[in-house]
Amino acid sequence: MLNISHLTKTYGEKKAVDDLSLHIAPGEIYGFIGHNGAGKTTTLKSVVGILQFDSGEITIAGHSVKTEPLACKKLLAYIPDNPDLYDFMTGIQYLNFVADIFEVPADTRRERINRYAETFELSGDLGSAVSSYSHGMKQKLAVISALIHDPKLILMDEPFVGLDPKASHILKEIMRDLCDAGGAIFFSTHVLEVAEKLCDKIAIIRAGQLIRSGTMEEVKGDDSLEDVFLELEE
Amino acid sequence: MLKALLRKQFLELNAFYFQNKKTGKNRSKAGTIGFIILYIVLFVYLAFMFFMLAQSLAGALIPMGYGWLYYALMGLVALAFGVFGSVFNTYAGLYHAKDNELLLAMPIPPRRILLVRMLGVYAMGMLYTCILMVPTIVAGQLNASGVWPLISQILLTILLGLVVLALTCFLGWIVALIAARLKNKSFITVILSLALIVLYYVIYFRVNTVIRHITEHAEQLDSGMRKLYPIYAFGRAAEGDALSLLAFAAIALVLTALCVWIMSRSFIRIVTMNRGEGAKKTDYRTQTVQKASGAPAALLRREFKRFTASPTYMLNCGLGLVLLLAAAVAALIKADAVRGAVERVAQTMPGLIPALPVLLCGAVILMAALNPISAPSISLEGKTIWILQSLPVNASDVLTAKLRMHLYLCAGPTLLCAAALAFVLRLDFSVAVYAAVLSLLATMLFGSLGLALNLLRPNLSWTNETVPIKQSMPVVVVIFGGWFIAGAVVGLYFLLRKFCPAQYYLLGCIVVFALLCRLLNGWLKRSGAEKFASL
């Protein structure tokens, strides 16, 4: 589903991502962990097409992010670490805007909006301006907007920050269901317990370089993910 | 504790001068000095404007023995200026301050927070009041000088600041209540602001008539206003009457004490009250936005939503639309007067009649330049730019939507104004068509130019939307560049008129403008789109 090959991205003199390669197959939840400034967000943004990278290749279902950005973006959804959404719209207007861009038919979008709004308990707030939302509500809206076009690949940057325990639980279930249906998820997190329980595979990045990746068993063996992570970081 | 709060409040006020809102960093020493000088110049300029008004009123009333009336009238104007100048700051600073909740969570008595906040409001009100009271005192002293009246006038200015404070707190409370309940806040703010602008110009243009009216009816006004004791006391006190000064001081202090008492009783409730739409649940199913539409329509709708949601955007970048429409309507209503004026001027300037189509274009372009709608549109994406960059839309489609909104908003009023003026000036049909086409092309040029400049100089890190709208290079360049273009169109015609009749000149301009539009649009489609994608 997602193939990252020798990705390199520099900011001035600093290499934010250095020759990073990863492959995410359909059905996989892939966790991405690393300390602050390790290059997680840069990698995710490069995959989404928000950042232009220096070298390497990224393909999504065989489409190159560089040469076929629109074909790639149609397949994916992105949830940033800080959901800055359009304050001048109501929640429902924002969802309709995203659905319009993805050309989701009216009946389908209505069904999905109703379903996810009920699931995340946001129905009563979708008619209100986004400017009046709390951080958690914005995060829920960002999640619903990411699911509205039934993406094949979801990229998430710290998706559980700001979500209440119930919403976090629901999101984890949705992630699992999406992957069971043949989709894939690549997400960054600092919560190692969540990564350990949820992910099929894990990648650890340090100073822009991938220092370990593979299935959960391959990465952590008999130790806890926290022990392995701390050991690798030293 | 009070000292720390005061220091914080004045740091907040000073930040305006010492910090760059765009970058959030401290200004350089030269930058700070330059900024302060700019504000002093603005203060002096405004004070000078009011001095002219004060001088004409003082010159007429003081020699007639109506000195108190002069001070009372100017005091009323100062009061109105102070109140309207600081009421919105009061609303933002007192009831909507970002750190209200932070301070309330600290072991500080709410009354102290309120007092410190009110001190900031008082300082702001005093600034506005002084812009009027300083020239009032100067003009008054020029006509009847005296040390005791001067001391009394200075004390009165300080006391007037307290009255301004009490009234702004009250009005700020009303604004807070309205803001919490209004549905179409943006439009109502725009309409109110436009009404104030119209009121200002009506007063500005009728000031001489008003002064003449006051001096002609000074006696009636004198007896009428004596009945309004606080105003009479203010006027008498300004002339040096100690008893009146004491009376006015008592009134101002009682008002302030009353204000502090009422506010301190309801401060916590007010600052934590319903902040508008947030607390009111609206069922989204009742909103008629379920129809599916394509990406271009969605992008265009998004641009219109952004424009209509922001009074600052509408007022600062769409004022020309109102002017164009007003000019069209005024020209049609006053058609005979306009024709008469043109004929009168033509008698002394025979070259005026053939130049009318070009002058018409110059006037319309001048007003169209006041609509730099596309110029801040890239910067306004701010931190939400990731949305467009992550969605499957071409950057060129995004730019096209921005340009389309500019054109859809500006084309109608521009065309209407050009057509109305052409009709009133009885231009030939073909020449009128040329003038209309040229005006439309100018609108298109300003739209493309604003967008291109904003792509080259974007500011996506703003925290207050007024920064990209009011303080950005693209907006300034479109407005002043537009005025320069309007001047160049007219000026060049007068240079070439011996060799080139107006209709051919307009045709030439149409070709040049169309070429410039094509060049800019070509750049936007290729390089501009790349630039947007890499922001």
* Rg estimate of chain B, integer Å: 27 Å
Order of helices and strands of chain B: HHHHHHHHHHHHHHHHHHHHH
What count of domains describes the coordinates of chain A?
1
Measured by residues with Cβ under 8 Å of the partner chain's Cβ, the largest interface is:
A-B, 47 and 41 residues
Biggest beta sheet summary of chain A:
6 strands, mixed
CATH architecture classification of chain A: 3-Layer(aba) Sandwich
Q: What is the number of beta strands of chain A?
A: 10
The proportion of residues forming helix of chain B, as a percent range, comes to over 70%
User: pLDDT under 50 segments of chain A (min length 5)?
Assistant: none
Please give the largest β-sheet of chain B.
Answer: none
Q: Order of strands side by side in the largest beta sheet of chain A?
A: 6-7-8-3-9-10
Quaternary: heterodimer
Q: What would you call the shape of chain B?
A: globular
CATH superfamily of chain A: P-loop containing nucleotide triphosphate hydrolases
CATH class of chain A, named: Alpha Beta
Number of helices of chain B: 21
What's the overall average pLDDT of chain A, rounded? 89
Helix run count of chain A: 9
Terminal Cα span of chain A: 33 Å
Provide tags for this entry.
heterodimer; A: 234 residues; alpha/beta; Rossmann fold; six-stranded mixed β-sheet; four-stranded antiparallel β-sheet; 10 strands; 39% helix; globular; B: 535 residues; mainly alpha; 2 domains; 21 helices; 80% helix; 0% strand
Structure overview:
The complex is a heterodimer of chains A (234) and B (535). Chain A has 234 residues and is of the alpha/beta class. Chain A is 39% helix and 26% strand. Chain A is built from nine helices and ten strands. In chain A, a hairpin with a 2-residue loop joins strand 4 (55-60) and strand 5. The longest helix of chain A is centred in the C-terminal third of the chain and has 16 residues, at 165-180. Chain B has 535 residues and is mostly helical. Chain B is 80% helix and 0% strand. Chain B is built from 21 helices and no strands. Chain B is globular and about 75 Å long.
